[in-house]
Amino acid sequence: MAKHELYGCPCCSGTFSGIFQVNDNVRNLKKQAASGNGWSCNWGIDWASLGRRDFLKTGGAAAGLAALMATEGNAQTQTVATVTTVFTNGTILTVNGDFSEAEAIAIRGNLILAVGTDSEVRALAGDEARIVDLGGKVVLPGFIDAHTHVITGSVVDATMEYVGMARYTSVDAVLEQIAMRVAETPAGEWLVFRNFDPAVQDGADALTFDDLDPISTEHPIFVLNASGHLAYANSKAFEVSSIANDVEDPPGGEFVRDADGNLNGVIKNNVAFLRIAENYPAMKEADPVGGLLGLLEKWSEFGLTTVSELSLGALAQSPADAQVMVAAAQSGRMKARIRAYPFYTIGAETWDEANVKPGDGNALARISGYKLVADGSNQGFTGLQREPYLDSDNLGIAYMEPEALTAAALERAQKGWHLAIHGNGDAAIDNILDTCQALFDAGIDMSRVRPRIEHCSILHDEQIARMRDLGVSASFLIGHVHYWGIAMRDEVFGEEKAQLLDRCRSVQQAGVGFTLHSDFMVTDPVPLHMIEMAVTRRTWKEPDYVLAPQETISVEAAIRAVTSEAAWQLFSDHEIGSLEPGKLADMVILDKDPREVAPDQIKNVRVVETWMDGRQVYAT
């Protein structure tokens, strides 16, 4: 028998999707798409040339989206400035093939004009160029997170306050934060939080009425577990949701009770906790486009200029999600690019009927590939394993059986789709590699598919060799090492198998490309911190413990993983990822060179400015 609570990856399994069904805007988008009247985004043409009036007449935008649209003819990528700007007197890390350094870089409009010595760049820029003195600062390509859930996550981020392990080390610290918010919030208003994870935050295993009611019985309080599988609420939240002690559990969900049979405030699965969340006004009224634009603005502080949506369709459970991306792209207010992957649970035929094709969109927002899922989460004990989890006979779960995975991959690849396939456990990765072998045997051009394994958590040597031979790359959720490393060692796998987690150096030495990602909302998308995690592999709970020190990598390799390699995985290496003439002017300016600070201080390097599409989108 499995001894653990089982749950999947909250983002890649679509666990969060049920939450969004209470949102009025999402409901409207889904209804319009289902009616056949709402889906008409003119895929395949340059979105920047699509005027406001043309977009709105499709009927695809919900009422609140219209106000966010740019005026006709003023879409973001249409603005072509003639001003040339030269950045000099600093270090330019191009992250090109040689990782070469330059003295200066010039941009004109939204493109890089020149990179080289100060004299070379000034000569090409001309006498009218504006000169920016870097004062010894360091310029890198804009950071890229190849696996986030920016569209689905933006609604949650806009409506729930983060209380996860990155900021709060213990359950007591979380309760203190909730109490502080109660003290500054009028009675009766909701307080809603996310990313609580008692599996890694020291203290009690759950939040019950006994924990939350002493903080407030006048504010409805709701806390979502990081797994998306559990939630906790105080008695006031139950009261305003009309959930009494005699409530019956819905199929697939549970209102947990104490030894005396009374509700204790713990709720399992969204079919149950949505009975409470649906009464939270902000969740009902949140504007997905406004939330997306706000999140991209916040992330510009981290130096991010390109992000991703690895489960497009999970918000509205339909292709209507792309309406949100379209509206943001046309708003003139995007501060980062988006690369999106339609999610397999919506159905390939549904995406085809909506005329969504790989490469649709423009440089601001584009459909990059298709997302499949082989298994669940290792820390949720649903990652599919060759051997049982520690002290258990549980092998995890195949979200797609091998035959179904291969059939879906073949069908998509034959239609020209790039594939991103979620795989955490080693048996799931076996299944993915068998699928890739089937693609190769079918005569499919693997260089066009560019298959990547998402998370790619547990890897054996022979699997790395197969990845190399089949042209498969890895995208590592490096926060697994830092935040969950001790749990992986002591509770999930044991010391020996934990050494196989996120094998960055081994894949690099084998010639397999790899990236580092956040899987937001699982961890925060802070590239400099992700670089530090990969360089040091120090764990959050035991800072002096290095998990699999043989898998540490150089700072340069880690920088590549969040710039040029990430651009390649997203089929955008022709336009972003390195500082080279002709590419888009996406840059981040740092106060220090990450290669020249102590490895455990890389996360403290300061982002001074972020430039996207030739515009300064963030400055300290």
From TrEMBL:
Keywords: Hydrolase
InterPro entries tied to this protein: Amidohydro_3, Metal-dep_hydrolase_composite, Metal_Hydrolase, TAT_signal, YtcJ-like
Enzyme Commission designation: 3.5.1.91
GO molecular function: hydrolase activity, acting on carbon-nitrogen (but not peptide) bonds
Pfam families for the chain: Amidohydro_3
Domain Amidohydrolase: 130-618
UniProt protein name: N-substituted formamide deformylase
Organism this protein belongs to: Pelagimonas varians
